[in-house]
Amino acid sequence: MMNVADAETRQTARPGLWAGLFAVNMALIAVLSITDALEQPVPVILIALNCVLLIPMVKAALRRMEDKGAVTTAVRRYNRRFLGASLLYAVSMIGAGTATNYIAANSPLMWALAVLPMLPAFGMIWAMMRYLAEETDEYQRHRAVQASMVGLALVLVLGTGWGFLETFGLVPHIWAWWVFPAWAMGLGIGMAISEWRHGGSA
Amino acid sequence: MKNRLRVLRAERQWSQQDLADRLDVSRQSVNAIETGKYDPSLPLAFRIADVFALTIEDIFLRDPEEQAAQ
């Protein structure tokens, strides 16, 4: 049963739209950097800027979850932590990407900059582990685990596939730091699949 | 798994949210259990039974095929 107010909020909350825009931008950046139309670190900076789109996407997704009565205390906490860590990740990416041009190669500072994004990446994993530990709603926990498995599948299958394609010289090289965004995209896809299968609640 | 949650809720005039609050789970979870999309764990099934002051078997019904196989 859905009343008029629900229908209206559901129309305004469209995480898929933001996710689509994000994906299109990512694809454009990928094509431009593979065809060497853009030189490093420009793609890195563009990718980081594109991540700003994830903020309205998360907000829309959250509003949609609220509509469906799927937001638990643990989800709220997780969203805050994860968003904080992803902002730090974006900042450290832009920072490191920009700063590399002004730093001597192989200098200790270069090492420090390169390792810097590991901290927010760890923060995101920590947020997820805390979520699974704090979530008392077993159904929501079950769905979160399933969605993260889709992300894992995407990273492992695509990563393995691409690795062999690269070994045989069929495709260009892709930086290994792509694993995290790829996993996050898989998580998003997993959540969308779960919403589609279990969705239409209330 | 089939269950009588919707009927039991209606008898008490509880909304899905009311039941969710009593169980300390999300409304979406109540909906998923009620529509048979998700089978609750044994601890949650006991909590549901306690909320209605019934036994688990009064609420959750065995699948006919499973019963036939026994």
Automatic annotation (TrEMBL), chain A:
Keywords: Membrane, Transmembrane, Transmembrane helix. The chain crosses the membrane at residues 16-35, 41-62, 82-103, 109-132, 144-162, 174-193. This is Uncharacterized protein. The lineage of its organism: Bacteria, Pseudomonadati, Pseudomonadota, Alphaproteobacteria, Sphingomonadales.
Automatic annotation (TrEMBL), chain B:
Keywords: DNA-binding. This is Transcriptional regulator. The keyword DNA-binding applies. Gene3D superfamilies: lambda repressor-like DNA-binding domains (1.10.260.40). PROSITE patterns: HTH_CROC1. Residues 5-59 form the HTH cro/C1-type domain. Transmembrane segments: none annotated. The lineage of its organism: Bacteria, Pseudomonadati, Pseudomonadota, Alphaproteobacteria, Sphingomonadales. InterPro entries: Cro/C1-type_HTH (IPR001387), Lambda_DNA-bd_dom_sf (IPR010982). It holds the Pfam family HTH_3. GO terms for molecular function: DNA binding. It comes from Aurantiacibacter zhengii.
